[in-house]
Design brief:
Elements: E1 10-14, H1 20-23, H2 33-41, H3 53-63, E2 68-73, H4 78-85, E3 93-98, H5 105-111, H6 113-116, E4 121-125, E5 128-129, H7 132-139, E6 144-149, H8 151-157, H9 162-165, E7 170-174, E8 177-182, H10 187-193, E9 204-206, H11 211-214, H12 227-236, E10 241-246, E11 251-252, H13 259-265
Parallel strand pairs: 1-2, 1-4, 2-3, 6-10
Antiparallel strand pairs: 4-9, 5-11, 6-9, 7-8
Helix pairs in contact: 5-12
């Protein structure tokens, strides 16, 4: 079979961020000692929500057929490395790609290029819990793809308030194909795209061709090397990205105030790694 059509079994999970919002103390957040310690380090993915949040993320991806997980971490992230190096796992294997400095999501992807090799791969955040159905749909879509989340679904089935979603990246499509990702869209863009414009939650499937574009990124207006700019480069070169629509929700673990809602949402979630 053509490798661009085979179901995806490899995931790159970005766990290198600084966790600036999570580090910020919040007197209203009642955290356990372990939760507070990881929050203070900005290690969102390792916050205990019954077990480390990242365990839930990986297990859900494994339910969708992911067997090889590449964690993009910093050289200082010994807690993550030691935890997964010593954790018994039957369904997935976990390896590591080192992003030397937190230069942005595009640089995180490029840091994983040797570990990925010639495989298509899923790209997701370590501080978001994506439903199996969404990952499976992307995994079985040929070529490049990304999930387009409805605003209503994110509000109804996730833990993200409508006010926050209003500032999230919007996807502009032509039929089923991506035309542009609008980061922090202004009022004019929101009005032009309409209320039903899908939202990007950094849930992509890429072919190795994406590394041609992560290799030449320049800093965005936010001073970061961003994966969205690599996508724009691929589009400009004639690449096609299929937008897979979904009404599912996402659990977001960006700040200390998110922890209690994530704990409640995952209380009955079974983890099998």
């Amino acid at each position: 079979m053509n490798a661009t059509h085979d179901p995806v079994t490899t995931a790159v999970i970005m766990a290198r961020g600084l966790g600036t919002r999570m580090r910020a103390d919040n007197a209203q957040s009642q955290l356990s000692g372990d939760q507070a310690a990881m929050a203070a380090k900005g290690l969102k993915s390792m916050i205990d929500v019954g077990r480390p949040f990242l365990d839930h993320v990986i297990s859900e991806a494994a339910d969708a057929g992911i067997a090889d997980v590449i964690l993009v971490i910093g050289p200082e992230h010994t807690e993550i490395r030691e935890y997964y190096a010593n954790l018994p796992m039957e369904r997935v294997s976990v390896s590591f790609a080192i992003q030397e400095k937190p230069l942005g999501t595009g640089d995180a992807v490029h840091s994983a290029r040797e570990a990925v090799g010639d495989r298509r791969f899923l790209l997701i955040n370590s501080d978001n819990f994506y439903p199996t159905s969404v990952i499976a749909a992307l995994a079985h879509t040929p070529g490049h793809s990304l999930a387009g989340f409805s605003k209503a679904g994110l509000v109804a089935k996730g833990n993200i308030e409508a006010e926050r979603i209003a500032a999230f990246a919007l996807i502009e499509t032509e039929g089923t194909e991506l035309r542009e990702i609008h980061e922090k869209p202004n009022a004019g863009t929101i009005a032009r795209l309409g209320e039903d414009a899908p939202v990007s939650m950094n849930c992509f499937v890429f072919t190795p061709r994406i590394f041609d574009f992560t290799a030449n990124l320049t800093p965005s207006s936010r001073g970061e090397l961003e994966v969205q700019d690599a996508v724009r480069g691929a589009l400009a070169a004639g690449g096609v990205f299929t937008v897979v629509p979904t009404d599912e929700g996402v659990l977001d673990l960006s700040s200390r105030t998110d922890i209690s809602s994530v704990v409640d949402a995952l209380a009955a979630h079974e983890v099998t790694l």
